Amino acid sequence: MATAHRIDHRALVAFAVTLCTAPAARAFVGDRSGTFGVDGSVRTILVATANYDAPLLFGDDNPADGLGQTLIRLVAGGYPTDWLSVEAHLLQSTTLEAFAGAAALTGRSTGGNALLGQAAGPLPYRLVPLELRFGERPRGNVDARVGLDRLQVSVATPWLDLTLGRQALSFGKAYFWNPLDPFFAFSPTQFDRDYKIGVDAARLDLPLGELAGVTLVAAGGDLDAADPWREAALVARGFATLAGWDLSVVGGKVRGGWQAGLGAAGEA
Fold first, then answer.
1. Where do the H-state alpha helices sit in the chain?
2. What pLDDT sits at residue 236?
3. What SS3 state is found at 177?
4. For residue 18, how many other CB atoms are within 10 A of its CB?
C-alpha cells in the first residue's frame, strides 16, 4: 500500500504524453475533394507513466510503463462523377508496449491496445486481411503492420446511398461507451479517435427526411472461419429527431449472436 509520503513524493500517476502530428493531410497528387488525389499524414503518440505502489493497477515491482505508436497513412480517392466516389487508405503502424499492469488497462484482454485502438490480433468483420503483420507475437510487446484500412466505392442518388468495400461504420455516438455500435466501437479508455478500423461490408442508407433515415449493413466474416455465418453481421438502424431528441433503434444479427437496442440523446 502506498504511504502518504510516497504518494506526495512520486505523485499518484505522472503522465508524459507527447503528440507529434504532421499537418492533417499533405497533398502529393491532385485533390481528393476533386476528381482524384493522393495525400498522407504521419503521427506519433508516446505515453509514459511513473507508477506508485499499487500492484492491482500496475503490477508487482513496476515503477514505470511506456507505450509508443507511429502511424503512416497514405490516402487516395476522389469524385470521378457527381454520384460516384472512391477512397483507399494504406496504413503502416508500429506499436511498442512496455506495460506490465492490468490487462484491462493495456488492452491485452482483447488482443489489442485499449489506449490507441490498434488491435494486435485478427480483426473480425473482414473477409480477407489485406495486410501483413510483423512483431514479437508470443510476447506482444512489438506489433508492426501494413495493409489496406479502407477500400470503398460509394454511389449517391437522391433516393439512397450505397457503399461497398472496407469502410468505417459508426452506429451512433456516445461520450463514454456506445453499446449499440457493434463495429469496432471506441473503447472508453481510447483517446485516439481520429480513425475507426474499416469493416468489409455493404451499406445502404435510405433518407426519410432531413433528420430521419434507415441504414442497412451486411458485414462479412472471415472466409477461412469454421462458421462464416457466425462471424458475419446483418444489422438495421433507424434514426429520427423528435422534440430536440435524437432517437435510434438498432437490431439484427452481429458476430456471435443477436442485438436489439434503443438509444436517445438530448437535453432535459
1. 4-10, 55-58, 103-106, 228-231
2. 96
3. coil
4. 10
CA 24 – CA 250 distance, rounded (Å): 33
For residue 246, with 0-12 CB atoms within 10 Å meaning exposed, 13-18 middle and 19 or more buried, which class applies? middle
Q: What is the pLDDT of residue 110?
A: 36
If phi > 0 it is left, if psi is from -120 to 50 it is alpha, else beta; for residue 197 that is beta
Residue 217 β-bridge partners = 203, 235
Cα three-residue angle 241-167-230, rounded to 5 degrees:
95
126 or 63, greater pLDDT: 126
pLDDT value at 21 more than 50: no
Question: Structure pTM?
Answer: 0.78
Interatomic CA distance for residues 9 and 11, integer angstroms: 6
- Residue 4 DSSP one-character state: H
